[in-house]
């Protein structure tokens, strides 16, 4: 076994790292479960804590939250028919009918077990695929890296659910924002207006806290009157029966493999994996008429899929530095804060840390299974936590998080500015995820583009003479064409709106 | 939705033009036949203007419509954002505890908690807990402000 792997196991299995992983899982289960809180919001509120903790402990905490959050989303989906996270939407289709039939414990037991299996399968994918991919990526030259980052950016199209133009606009605004500060090649100051705080550019974590958390708080204000959720059922036995375990073998296999594969593809994400695996399981089922009325297979397939996505999404993040979703984008930010840039060099320069991260992911799945099963009854009570206490806490944590980044109030004002931008974008129905991804990928995009063009003395054929670059550019073109086609089909399917809707 | 598309397009056209003007003022020092500091901003400018023009066209001809995703609670939202702005303005001077407790209380009320005793106790305890946790637990130098020398 490689010394890096052994060092990684040792790093991930230290007492404090394990403890933090377990704490992260507990917080993740809680955050994922509470409607109105997302995994991204949970990670954002934990960010200030990670700034002061060592890198291995910070990343263990965040990974625990990521894994726990995916499972936690299914709790409210089953008990309240309100998915705690978008990835748990498919789980509600059969989980809630089971809950209505008095089998909430059975549904949750299946969800937890399926999540565990999905997570472990994706851990194996991460363990075996990530080092190989990183080795391949080491041979990439600047033109290849540019094409790869460009391909990563075309996932913007998949987040532009309503309007491709708005999604692209959101992305290019993000690219414009990253040009504030010193230019990455020559160090020339751009758009700083003499402001010292802008020389280093706008930290994307500050921007992200504002973009995600403030609109989230405001949208929670809209239904603040009730304050708490009402739980409809009491839980009986949570441990799945043997006959249920037999019944979910095939759905869990389908879900795990679908989730791990789609997780690797930037932009696909948990909700898509969950619905695809649900649909496929339903199609091949011998009793498909039971789906939607409380079929355990209908809970197992999406739950294994959305947890398998987590390990899959870590593969491009760790090996290529390309985030597949907002959560992995935030994880990149958390790693950069600690001076650890994700990418192919991570496995050669900090192999111990890279494998430590992978094994922390493994432990996160183990703790997720144990904590979810044993503490389910306590966790479910947290669904009734008063939002009037929770949301102000989130607001104050946003302020602390943006301040703690550099002990600077300027960052807090930047956070508020981006919060207002996020609100404006929501009002204008523009997606914010493309902007976030552009903030992460903008600097490497510009840097690789300019270095490649400098080395070719301005000859753009450099991008078409490298087979790797050509492949990624072709994939980018395919991704855009696919999104254009989807947008066209959507437009054809939806009836025209004759009147302006109220603002 | 058409009106929102037109508003968004016009705002972005203005932003794109402003960005382009600022880009034209950037220093252009670079080697011959190589892209300089304004190279990437120029690409952004062209893309922003092109896409904004497309969005404007879509808005004018009625395409690209969709259900608005954000509505309601306008009054509460305005109050919450106002409280946020005031809070951030007074935070450096008054310090974390003195400014956070009223802000927290205001948000609790806006989020539906109307029992004033609970609001007061919740706001003060939560503020003190967060202050002590981050200041002493995690070493974040939250400003003590008016309470400098009184609180640890």
Tell me about this structure:
The complex is a heterodimer of chains A (503) and B (152). With 503 residues, chain A is mainly α. Chain A has one domain. By secondary structure, chain B is an all-alpha fold. In chain B, helix 1 packs antiparallel against helix 2, helix 3 runs antiparallel to helix 4 and helix 4 crosses helix 5. Chain B starts with a helix and ends in a 15-residue tail after the last helix. Chains A and B meet through helix 3, helix 9, helix 10, helix 19 and helix 20 of A and helix 1, helix 2, helix 3, helix 4 and helix 5 of B.
Task: Please describe the structure with a list of short key phrases separated by commas or semicolons.
heterodimer; A: 503 residues; mainly alpha; two-stranded antiparallel sheet; 2 strands; 1% strand; B: 152 residues; 2 domains; 5 helices; 0% strand; flat
Mean pLDDT of chain A: 83
| Classification by helices and strands of chain A | mainly alpha
Proportion of β residues of chain A? under 5%
Question: How large is the radius of gyration of chain A?
Answer: 22 Å
Percent of residues in helices of chain B comes to 55-70%
Number of strands of chain B: 0
Question: First CA to last CA of chain B: what distance?
Answer: 53 Å
The tally of helices of chain A reads 23
Count helical runs of chain B: 5
Percent of residues in helices of chain A = over 70%
Q: Termini of chain A, distance in Å?
A: 61 Å
| Form type of chain B | flat
What is the strand content of chain B? under 5%
């Amino acid at each position: 076994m490689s010394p890096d792997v052994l060092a990684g196991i040792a790093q991930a299995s230290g007492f404090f790292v394990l403890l933090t992983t377990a704490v992260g899982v507990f917080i993740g289960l809680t955050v994922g479960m509470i409607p109105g809180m997302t995994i991204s919001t949970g990670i954002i509120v934990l960010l200030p804590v990670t700034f002061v903790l060592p890198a291995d402990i910070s990343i263990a905490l965040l990974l625990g939250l990521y894994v726990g959050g995916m499972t936690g989303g299914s709790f409210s989906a089953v008990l309240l028919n309100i998915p705690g996270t978008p990835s748990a939407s498919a789980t509600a289709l059969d989980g809630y009918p089971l809950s209505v039939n008095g089998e909430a414990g059975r549904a949750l037991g299946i969800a937890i077990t399926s999540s565990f299996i999905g997570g472990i399968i994706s851990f194996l994918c991460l363990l075996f695929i990530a080092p190989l991919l990183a080795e391949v990526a080491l041979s990439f030259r600047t033109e290849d890296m540019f094409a790869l980052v460009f391909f990563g950016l075309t996932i913007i199209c998949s987040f532009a659910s309503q309007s491709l133009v708005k999604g692209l606009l959101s992305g290019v605004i993000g690219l414009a924002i990253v040009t504030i500060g010193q230019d990455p090649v020559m160090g020339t100051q751009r758009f700083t207006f003499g402001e010292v705080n802008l020389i280093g550019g706008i930290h994307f974590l500050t921007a992200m806290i504002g973009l995600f958390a403030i609109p989230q708080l405001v949208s929670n204000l809209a239904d603040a009157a009730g304050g708490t959720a009402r739980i409809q059922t009491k839980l009986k036995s949570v441990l799945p029966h043997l006959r249920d375990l037999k019944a979910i073998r095939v759905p869990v296999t389908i879900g795990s493999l679908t989730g791990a594969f789609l997780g690797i593809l930037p932009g696909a994400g948990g909700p898509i994996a969950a619905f695809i695996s649900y649909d496929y399981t339903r199609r091949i089922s011998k009793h498909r008429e039971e789906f939607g009325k409380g079929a355990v297979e209908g809970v197992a397939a999406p739950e294994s899929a959305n947890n398998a996505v987590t390990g899959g999404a870590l593969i491009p993040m760790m090996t290529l530095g390309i985030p597949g979703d907002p959560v992995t984008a935030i994880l990149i930010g958390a790693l950069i804060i600690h001076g650890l840039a994700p990418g192919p060099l991570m496995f050669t320069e900090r192999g111990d840390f890279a494998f430590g991260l992978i094994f922390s992911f493994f432990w996160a799945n183990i703790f997720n299974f144990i904590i979810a099963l044993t503490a389910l009854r306590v966790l479910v009570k947290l669904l009734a936590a008063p939002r009037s206490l929770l949301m102000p806490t989130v607001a104050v944590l946003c302020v602390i998080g943006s301040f703690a980044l550099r002990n600077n109030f300027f960052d807090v004002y930047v956070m508020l500015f981006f919060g207002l931008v996020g609100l404006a974008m929501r009002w204008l129905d523009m997606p914010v995820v493309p902007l976030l991804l552009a903030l992460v990928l903008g600097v490497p995009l510009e840097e690789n583009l300019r270095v490649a063009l400098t080395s070719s003395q301005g000859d753009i054929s450099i991008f078409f003479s490298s087979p790797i670059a050509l492949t990624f550019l072709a994939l980018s073109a395919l991704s855009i064409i696919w999104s254009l086609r989807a947008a066209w089909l959507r437009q054809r399917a939806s009836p025209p709106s004759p009147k302006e809707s109220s603002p | 939705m058409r009106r929102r598309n037109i508003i968004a397009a016009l705002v972005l056209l203005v932003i794109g033009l402003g960005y382009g003007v600022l880009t034209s003022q950037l220093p252009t020092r670079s080697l011959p036949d190589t892209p300089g500091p304004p190279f990437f901003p120029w690409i952004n400018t062209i893309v922003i203007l092109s896409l904004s023009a497309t969005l404007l066209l879509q808005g004018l001809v009625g395409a690209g419509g969709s259900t608005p995703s954000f509505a309601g609670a306008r009054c509460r939202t305005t109050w919450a954002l106002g409280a946020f702005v005031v809070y951030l303005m007074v935070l450096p001077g008054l310090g974390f505890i003195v400014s956070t407790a009223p802000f927290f209380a205001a948000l609790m009320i806006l989020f539906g908690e109307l029992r004033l005793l609970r609001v007061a106790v919740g706001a003060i305890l939560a503020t003190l807990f967060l202050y002590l946790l981050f200041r002493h637990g995690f070493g974040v130098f939250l400003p003590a402000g008016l309470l400098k020398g009184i609180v640890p």
